[in-house]
Design a protein that fits this description.
By secondary structure, the chain is mainly alpha-helical. It folds into 2 domains: about 80 residues; about 35 residues, no CATH class. Helix content is about 85%, strand content about 0%. It has 6 helices and no strands. Helix 2 runs antiparallel to helix 3, helix 2 crosses helix 4 and helix 3 packs across helix 4. The longest helix has about 40 residues. The protein is elongated. The termini are far apart.
Length: about 130
Amino acid sequence: MIADNIGSGDLLWAMMAFFFMVIYFMMLFSVIGDLFRDHELSGFSKVIWILALLFLPLLSLLIYMIARGSGMAERSIAAQQQMQKQMDTYVQQTAAGANPTEQIAQAKKLLDDGAISQQEFDSIKAKALG
């Protein structure tokens, strides 16, 4: 059998090779994503980087990470903040209802039922209107 010929050292080396291959592909996809996210870099420069990543993969990946790593982190943080802002806006619209008139009507009903005070009603009305 094949498994009889594989020693524990060979298995360890295979696991390490697989681990570093996964790390390499994660870094490669991160760099390619950053290339397309960067609006300051010209299209020609992006093509040069992509070709370098194809023909000199490890060297160009390391050069990109060293030369443009700080900008890469800033663009990643900006993208995360933008996504968080969009998510917060979506959640607020969904939770509160998209129609301010409905919000005010529901708050008025709660006020009439005595579930909320006049101050709470005014607060809800102010949030709904602006």
